[in-house]
Specification:
The complex is a heterodimer of chains A (500) and B (471). Chain A has 17 helices and 13 strands. Chain A has helices at 91-94, 102-109, 119-128, 153-165, 171-188, 192-205, 217-222, 225-235, 251-261, 314-326, 331-339, 370-387, 392-403, 413-425, 432-441, 445-455, 469-479, and strands at 16-17, 60-63, 69-74, 80-88, 134-137, 141-149, 241-247, 286-291, 297-305, 343-350, 358-366, 462-467, 484-487. Chain A has a six-stranded mixed beta sheet, sandwiched between helices. In chain A, strands 10-11-9-12-8-13 form a six-stranded mixed beta sheet, with helices on both faces. In chain A, helix 11 packs antiparallel against helix 12 (370-387). Chain B has helices spanning 7-10, 73-80, 92-95, 124-137, 144-163, 170-178, 193-198, 201-211, 227-238, 288-299, 305-313, 345-362, 366-374, 376-383, 387-401, 406-416, 420-430; strands spanning 32-35, 41-46, 52-59, 103-108, 113-120, 217-223, 260-267, 273-279, 317-326, 331-339, 435-442, 456-458. Classes of the chains: A alpha+beta (500), B alpha+beta (471). Chains A and B meet through strand 1, helix 3, strand 6, helix 5 and helix 11 of A and helix 2, helix 3, strand 4, helix 4 and helix 5 of B. Strand 1 (16-17) of chain A pairs antiparallel with strand 4 (103-108) of chain B, so a sheet runs across the interface.
């Protein structure tokens, strides 16, 4: 979603973002109050110049002896290098069902000690190199990466290789991470949005599907050192890895440095199977209410099982979603924030992924307008399905926002690297960026309506609302939109459904 | 929008021709600066890496220009700036930024308010047209309904970012305690709910006429530009906007905290948190760079003093942070600690005090100092990859230093020149007994406060007491 505040501490926390708004279209410009006079007609919108060409960086790809792919893209100008090892497959493919959070723990624990360095030494070495090595394992891909100045590249890569090849997973570090994580999970349950982020996927997919599971106290408490070691041995292997290097470095230099640093990384591993259990069949629209006494706002998360990234409807869905809930003037934000003033910002998204990632709309709504906002969400989800077809202007803005924002993602070495790596982790064609504009521009108004009808089903929505039940339950019942099931903060039922 | 650094405050950078022992990368931001007849300062900087541009207008006005009873107004005004202006109907601003592949936003701080567009470079003239129109003709399209709608949204922003967040009110409670009543830095930029409700259209007009004049602003354009053509457009759209009256800056006194203030706030949280804050120095002080590095030495990394001791070696805390923030007139140094469940805020405070006392006695080691300086080169180079990041830096440095290149020419060298003796000295000078200690505890658990017997219970003065919503 756009125009959210950023969080920084201290004085900086006092920074507040604005963002447009206004309840009404202004009248014809009134000139009588003008403090300034204009010597020309300022109502004339400047004519834009020629649309700049998209320049997609070139990259070369080779296979290394251990089976990993190496991709290198030169980007000169600043003495910077971005390095990533991306792994195809993630927590959903490698984590035992009963231990969500294990992949996250393994990623965190790489920097807790190796056979050559303890955790403090790793930290100190990287501080002196002016950088840090980041490890992250998501649902369907993982990454170990850094950005460095050119002169620190080889030394930083050597530290990364040590973390990748020789981690020791000390028991005391596991216990410490576990304790810290439990505190974070507890604090997260003090946020209505934190609760919704757990309850919504669980309500849509159930816990039999990896998309429905989240790290929790029980799973975190169950993680053993043996689990970490087993996951590590299975996961961090070159057979499903793509190494990508972007920046002030030549292909030959990069290849030499990588082969040198990762000479000990032995062959093995392969791209995993991405099959998932079937998602639950759609259920009639239901409101799942989670009580958060005293909440000033209610967090909304409403949606359903969506299509995978590989759907042929991908570009039509992107265009449709821009006008529904991505752009500031998208239908959801324009109506619920700008016109009604119920929120600081609302929006919508598709999860995509190798499996059927969820469609999700939502935002934080002032408690007293929880019922009114739900009515507006339902209205917009129905309207986009054809009751109010996209205007020419909506269609044009949605497409241009996608196509013309692409060049800016190639500005930084890390931006270029992320773009290249995602080609391989998502299994896209190598000319994806060159073909992107054509695919987006081919989307028609009919396509938009068709995919809205196909993927947004107002009769089968999961509506999670986290807020002050004493204030919002009765008004929600009165809307007669759907029956209410009350859930606890973990997404488990606490009482039977009440039929309106 | 991804979180971003307030780079002038926390990430001093590399300069062009510094004489440093370490190899200096000869990188700078090339720029051209000039002033229009109406007082508008213009800074242009070319970067043709991608076919994009960033346009920023920064006004030297922020929440510190407000007075009691009208808090939050500068920020609410910022929202009004997006509702259309004399020749730009509502919605047009988004259409020619987001709707052509760009973005726009605004941001309000104690000292400044800034607005920006990013666009494909063929829409540069459009972005200049948009900014000029609201600088010159905002009031032509203002009406009460538009203003009231903005007010509701700002109240929701307050709820979402402060009132409905665990620990979301800590900073404002500390600000009220640290500064004298009515001090311009004592209230938060978002303002009090009751003040937001009281503001009206006449306030908007007065504020606009006072502060939103070309002579109180700097326009920065960075990216894929042709400078001659850009100057011609700037002349066309901005030259004829009238100069405003000279601006009177608020007279800002010191925090004048005498001794320690201990506060307990009961919040809707399960985990208590301790926040210790000292009044320090503003951005112009020679001590600011040393205080910024002191924050890194205490909690900037795994091996920073407090982090290592409290989170790793004898783990009584789940997380810690520390740092100096230097604003135009004041500065603050804070340490924030979230304990583990089996440990108390009192225990945490005792440990923090002992670590700070040791640092004040011995100063940092040469190795520690080297580590905390080492990351600055990369941080600066990384920021140079963003048109908008560069625009922020140039605009702030122009506004507060009258030198767009200050940070990369001077600021970086000043930070690199900080010695261990400097750090020891500023720790002793500023981290003394005059401070605010806030214990944020779960509702009904005031006994969990650090030294609860000496801590005063504070209520929550700025949040809404009753729900006020437009019908």
């Amino acid at each position: 979603m756009n125009r959210r505040p950023s969080f920084v501490s201290g004085l900086a926390a006092a920074v507040v973002f604005a963002a447009p708004l206004a309840a009404q279209q202004p009248k014809t410009p009134a000139k009588q109050q003008a403090a300034a006079k204009s010597s020309f007609d300022r109502r004339i919108v400047p004519t834009p110049g020629k649309v700049p060409d998209l320049t997609v960086p070139f990259w070369g790809k080779v296979s290394l002896a251990n089976g990993a792919q190496l991709v290198v893209s030169e980007k000169r100008g600043l003495p910077l290098v971005s390095f990533q090892i991306s792994f195809i497959g993630g927590a959903n493919q490698y984590e035992p069902e009963e231990k969500p959070g294990l992949a996250n723990f393994v990623a965190n624990m790489l920097s807790e000690g190796t056979t050559h360095r303890n955790g403090d030494q790793i930290s100190n070495d990287l501080q002196l190199l002016g950088t840090e090595v980041n490890a992250f394992i998501g649902g369907e891909s993982g990454r170990v990466s850094f950005e460095s100045t050119r002169d620190k590249f080889a030394a930083t890569l050597a530290v990364l290789a040590d973390l990748l090849e020789n981690p020791t997973f000390p028991q005391d570090a596991l216990d410490r991470l576990r304790a810290r994580t439990i505190v974070s999970l507890t604090v997260n349950r003090d946020r209505t949005s934190g609760i919704a982020n757990v309850v919504f996927p669980k309500s849509v997919f159930g816990t039999a599907h990896p998309y429905g599971r989240s790290m929790n106290e029980a799973s975190v408490k169950a993680i053993t050192r043996d689990d970490l070691v087993a996951f590590y041995k299975n996961y961090f292997r070159p057979g499903h890895a793509v190494i990508s290097v972007v920046g002030d470095i030549s292909q030959a230099e990069a290849k030499r440095a990588v082969e040198n640093a990762l000479s000990g990384w032995k062959a093995g591993g392969s791209v995993p199977d991405f099959s998932y259990p079937a998602a639950p069949s759609p259920k009639p629209t239901t409101i799942y209410l989670v009580d958060k006494p005293g909440a000033a706002q209610s967090t909304f998360a409403l949606g359903e099982v969506g299509p995978p990234r590989a759907t042929p409807d991908y570009f039509a869905l992107r265009v449709m979603n821009e006008m529904l809930g991505v752009l500031f003037q998208s239908r959801l934000n324009h109506n619920i924030r700008e016109v009604k003033g119920y929120s600081y910002g609302v929006g919508s998204s598709f999860g995509f992924g190798k499996g059927p990632g969820a469609f999700r709309a939502g935002g934080d709504i002032v408690t007293a307008k929880t019922d009114s906002a739900l009515i507006e969400f339902m209205k917009e989800l129905r309207d986009i399905r054809g009751r109010r077809p996209p205007s020419d202007d909506e269609l044009a803005q949605a497409k241009a926002s996608l196509v013309q924002s692409l060049p800016s993602t190639f500005a930084s070495v890390t931006g270029v690297n992320n773009n290249i790596a995602s080609i391989y982790t998502q299994g896209l064609a190598e000319d994806y960026y060159q073909a992107f504009a054509r695919a987006v521009n081919a989307v028609t108004r009919e396509d938009v309506v068709r995919v809205a009808q196909k993927y947004i089903d107002p009769e089968h929505l999961t509506i999670v609302i986290v807020g002050d039940r004493s204030k919002i339950e009765a008004p929600l019942i009165a809307t007669k939109i759907a029956p209410i099931v009350v859930l606890d903060v973990n997404g488990d039922p606490v009482k039977k459904a009440v039929t309106p | 929008m991804r979180p971003f650094l307030l780079s002038v405050l926390v990430a001093p950078c590399l300069l062009a021709q510094q004489q440093q022992a370490r190899p200096a990368t000869s990188i700078s931001i090339p720029f051209e600066k000039y002033t229009l007849n109406n007082g508008l300062t213009v800074v242009l900087s070319e970067d043709h890496t991608t076919p994009t541009v960033a346009v920023e207008v920064i006004y030297h006005v922020g929440s510190k220009n407000e007075v009691l009873g009208h808090t939050g107004f500068a920020h609410m005004f910022e929202h009004v700036m997006f509702t259309g202006s004399g020749h730009v109907p509502y919605g047009t601003h988004d259409k020619f930024t987001e709707g052509v592949g760009g973005s726009n936003n605004g941001q309000t701080y104690f000292d400044w308010t800034r607005y920006w567009e990013t666009d494909p470079s063929n829409y540069l003239e459009t972005a200049l047209w948009l900014e000029a129109d609201r600088m010159g003709f905002l009031l032509d399209s203002l009406d009460d309904a538009k203003f009231r709608a903005q007010r509701d949204i700002v109240k929701n922003e307050r709820r979402q970012s402060y009132d409905n967040q665990p620990y979301g009110r800590d900073r404002e409670l500390i600000g009220l305690a640290m500064y004298p009543n009515g001090h311009p830095y004592s209230w938060p930029t978002i303002g009090a709910m009751s003040d937001l409700s009281a503001a009206g259209v006449e306030d908007v007009k007065r504020f606009f006429r006072l502060y939103y004049a070309p002579n109180n602003a700097t326009l920065v354009v960075v990216g894929d530009i042709n400078r001659a053509r850009t100057k011609a457009w700037i002349a066309k759209y901005f030259d004829e906007l009238p100069r405003g009256k000279a601006i009177t800056r608020p007279n800002v006194g010191a925090a004048s905290l005498r001794g320690e203030k201990r506060l307990t706030f009961e919040d809707r949280v399960q985990v208590p948190r301790l926040w210790i804050q000292w009044p320090t120095v503003n951005m112009f002080s020679a001590d600011a760079p040393a205080l910024e590095l002191l924050g890194e030495i205490l909690a900037g990394s795994r091996t920073a003093r407090i982090t290592k001791a409290l989170v790793y070696d004898k783990p009584i805390a789940a997380s810690v942070s520390a740092g100096q923030t230097s604003a135009e007139n004041v500065g603050e140094f804070r340490i924030i600690v979230t304990p583990r469940p089996e440990h108390t805020l009192t225990e945490v405070e005792t440990q923090v005090d002992s670590i700070v006392a040791r640092l004040k006695r011995d100063g940092p080691t040469a190795e520690e100092l080297k580590r905390v300086k080492a990351g600055q080169e990369l941080s600066f180079l990384d920021d140079l990859q963003s048109n908008l990041g560069k625009a922020f830096q140039l605009a702030e440095d122009q506004t507060f230093r009258d030198d767009p290149s200050y940070t990369f020419r001077v600021g970086y060298a000043k930070t690199q020149a900080v010695t261990a003796a400097d750090i020891k000295r500023v720790a002793n000078k500023y981290l003394g007994s005059s401070r605010v200690v806030l214990s944020n505890v779960p509702l009904g658990k005031r006994d969990l406060a650090s030294h609860a017997d000496r801590s005063t219970i504070v209520t929550d003065p700025l949040t809404e007491k009753t729900t006020e919503i437009r019908p």
